[in-house]
Amino acid sequence: MQLFGLLGVNGTVLTEALTHKKIIAKGEELVSPLNLEQASSARDALSKAVYGRTFTWLVNKINASLAYKDESLKNSSVIGLLDIYGFEVFQHNSFEQFCINYCNEKLQQLFIELTLKSEQEEYEAEGITWEPVQYFNNKIICDLVEEKFKGIISILDEECLRPGDASDFTFLEKLENTLGGHPHFVTHKLADGKTRKVMGRDEFRLLHYAGEVNYNVNG
Question: Which superkingdom is the protein from (predicted)?
Fold first, then answer.
């Protein structure tokens, strides 16, 4: 009951919405119950929507609190800090850690593009003498994850949608067939003897900019 109160909705109405679907056919409204899998998906979709809106509300609230309220301070300098190193490596790394580390790869790429690459190009264009900063361009890792048709996410989408007996291990096999030979990707099957000792048969490894991570495909 406390949850319904926080959401500001009638509990009976919400329960009905999460466990039944409405179909309008030829002007007639039909209500049918959802099976367990469909109801679970509806629950998860609601949770994601609530989380997304709460996060947006919080960000707007923080931005509003940081905004200049005194016009005399409008031209004051502000220092912004961006912490992009929330990298996760555990004994068991799942899809959640994969998403978090992919996000960090994208932030690192943005940092490289805006801070290192573009600034050094500006120095060069203006003829400024400086000591070039060497950096690893992680675009190759971002492409490995997000490239259309042959990135890890595309392969996962394809495997989830294809007919037949798709499973966690057929997904792993598809990764091996598509990405085998990529310098930043390896599996137990593709690895050398030394690496196989520290990898499970249900894992693939990505060589991120911040280090190596073994991801388990189960689930």
Answer: Eukaryota
